[in-house]
Give the backbone structure.
Amino acid sequence: MAQSSQATGGLTSIPALLQRNATLYAEKSAYREKEFGIWQTWTWAETEKEIEALALGLINLGVNEGDFIAIIGRNRPYFYFAMAAAQSVGAVPVPVYNDSAADEMEYILGHCGARYAIVEDQEQVDKIIEIQEHLHQFEHMIYIDPRGMRKYDHHALHEYSHIQAQGRAAYDEFITDLKARREKLTYDDTCVMLYTSGTTGKPKGVVLSNRNVIESAKNSAEFDNLGAGEEILSYLPMAWVGDFIFSLGQAYWCGFCVNCPESADTMMTDLREIGPTYYFAPPRIFETQLTSVMIRMEDAGNLKRKMFHYFMAHAKKVGGKILDGKPVGAMDRLKYALGDVFVYGPLKDTLGFGRVRVGYTAGEAIGPEIFEFYRSLGINLKQLYGQTEATVFITVQPDGEVRADTVGVPAPDVEIRIEDNGEIYYRSPGVFVEYYNNPESTASTKDAEGWVATGDAGFFEPDSGHLRIIDRAKDVGKMADGSMFAPKYVENKLKFYPDILEAVLFGNGKEKCVAFINIDLTAVGNWAERNNVAYASYQELAGHPKVLDTIQSHVEAVNESVAQDPMLSGCQIHRFLVLHKELDADDGEMTRTRKVRRVIVADKFNDLVEGLYDGSTTVSTKTEVTYEDGRKGSISATLDLRDAKVFPTASKVAAE
């Protein structure tokens, strides 16, 4: 699978692409950030100078080739500059989730042996100071926001702008060194190290080379015809491979503009202002946006609500076909055009999707109903299947072949094979180099020929050649009667409902399936306010009889739908409960990328699982929780456990 750098014109590193862009796209916007309500802009020429000053400052500070530099903060141009500056001096950037607890940061910084960290503000500085005595190799910290930092000891603590100023002052002294380090970079040098989310254990450091990142960026950009004119909004965690490849890999390959929101709270407003042409979000974002739409519709006037539902019903019927260029009758097209004027167009503008030419979702499977909702509006939303270890791309969906039930065809230069047990393997130019300091895990994941085990189960459709993912291979099992147990399929159907934020299905080896459900506090709280239902907490609202009735109706509707699939009809939910707390990454129940840690959830709430299976109608439980300031506490609750109606399978109905 070796790839020659000739295909990329000899551009074998991110700093090399930066030098090209500073010349080719000198006056074109490279980065924007909204600060104090005003958009600040850096051209590619200005970006190159900002990065050069920081790189010189890092050399002045003592950064050596091969050093690891932790990058911790929200999406800001300064951090993207920092990653490129680290690469320019031959160091390795290690983005870390900025909402990580101090002990999580301690593991990552200790594991990679980071000597330096570039962080955002006082909060991150305090976290590292708390763990610094355990980081024996750690030397210097650089912060961007100086607020609250005046009285700190600055012997090993430096303001970002001061490091840049020192770099500019030392230009004559170190520019030769910088150029030499930059020119030494090869296709096989490390570009970045990204840590996995640690769904089943400690996070692993995934080493990605310049070859991995640039080849993946080039191939994916060519596949979707991405160019320098694209606008993207960078708001997803920088520690996640998706953000790295879109906001750094593809941005530098194509030369397009990366826009950073002012804060998480203003993200939706900033999204509407930017109107990106290329957009990426995990399913949770699309679920949240759909929930907000449905809430607004419930609050709208009768005429507006009726018009919305009327035109959305038509969009569901023909919108996807029109988007894919398939034949649709003249009257249906006219009706859809009217819908675009009155409903679809304004709705897309409200969501910030009015200019989206290519949209992607990945990270987890998206519910088919949610996926089809967006495509029916005329938004070219596609699914991709990827991993950190693949530098994102394993499969992609070509225009005109986009479906909710598959993840498309192999991405350019990617080979895929399916083992006898259904597990998916791939190899490509994006295949990671290794897990850092973990040869055993590297060998168990990647073989000598470069084939990587995904841990997912799936199959290729014989007619279309599209890949279908069933579930995580470790999560796919058998019910007691031998029928397939694939929890994610059912969970995604449940999460289509705005009231349901998260669902966890149990049933492997059992005679029937049961489920935990988290309500969406925003959606259900809105319902409560409209209906004058008083509540003081999430727990109180989650246990309200009317809320439980509504959730039961959703569960039974999903059961009726699941019953139509002969392969998965055994996954109907027989009993369920609504959890008294939201599943939370701080409590270890989810990863930082919002993936459920099933084993931990099953173990932590074992009494509730047993209650669902032994027929109990109520269970009293006590659960440890972590507060925002890191303190531990506990909450007690008595939960109602409910039965749900199940339906005969399609095959049984046909036989009768």
